[in-house]
Write a structure and sequence with these properties.
Helix content is 46%, strand content 15%. It contains eight helices and seven strands; from the N terminus they run βαβαββαβαβαααβα. By secondary structure, the protein is of the alpha/beta class. The chain is globular, with a radius of gyration of 15 Å. The strands form two sheets. Strands 2-5-1-6-7 form a five-stranded parallel sheet, sandwiched between helices. Strand 3 and strand 4 form a beta hairpin.
Length: 176
């Protein structure tokens, strides 16, 4: 099984990836952990591509969460399933504020590179509420989702929870 999880910032892509990885016993790659080095320094596209290719070549089955459409686009064609989390901007904002409160000043969250202290600034808030939610971006996500043999678009947590319940995933509400 190969699962790609995409969606807006703050939808819970990383949490869902960890939950599904545990359920299916699959390795997971969080693309933010590949994109950022310590102190939010960005990696080059070449380095990111190589890291994702290494992961793909090392694992017959996998879960990859994160957008970065230009990075290793063959992952979308290889995916058996693509999940697009398309929650409204205010849900995403609430989730990001909760994440900030949970991880700020604490250890780096599990889906990020070490040394990337949780932050919440005006630029990121603008991204969550406006810049990261353009119609062009939404259409690109939908186009990506259509590449898979099976795709799911969830517009809210209730839809996702119903899906996870059908799969038999336990305790999904508590961690999302």
């Amino acid at each position: 099984m190969k699962i790609a999880i995409i969606g807006y910032s703050g939808t819970g892509k990383s949490t869902l990836a960890r939950k599904l990885a545990n359920f299916y016993q699959l390795p997971v790659l969080h693309l933010d952990s590949v994109h950022f080095k310590e102190n939010w320094q960005e990696c080059s596209d070449e380095d990111m591509n190589q890291a994702v290719l290494n992961f793909l070549n090392s694992n017959a089955e996998w879960i990859i969460e994160g957008n970065y459409r230009r990075i290793c686009p063959q992952r979308f064609q290889e995916a058996d399933q693509i999940i697009f989390l398309s929650y409204n901007r205010f849900t995403c904002l609430k989730n990001v504020i909760h994440r900030y409160r949970t991880y700020h000043g604490a250890a780096t969250r599990p889906d990020m590179a070490k040394g990337c202290e949780e932050k919440l600034d005006k630029e990121f808030l603008f991204w969550i509420l406006y810049k990261g939610r353009t119609q062009k971006r939404k259409h690109a996500y939908i186009e990506i989702a259509s590449m898979a043999k099976c795709s799911h678009i969830f517009k809210n947590r209730r839809q996702l929870w119903k899906y996870l319940k059908i799969l038999g995933v336990k305790n999904y509400e508590a961690s999302m």
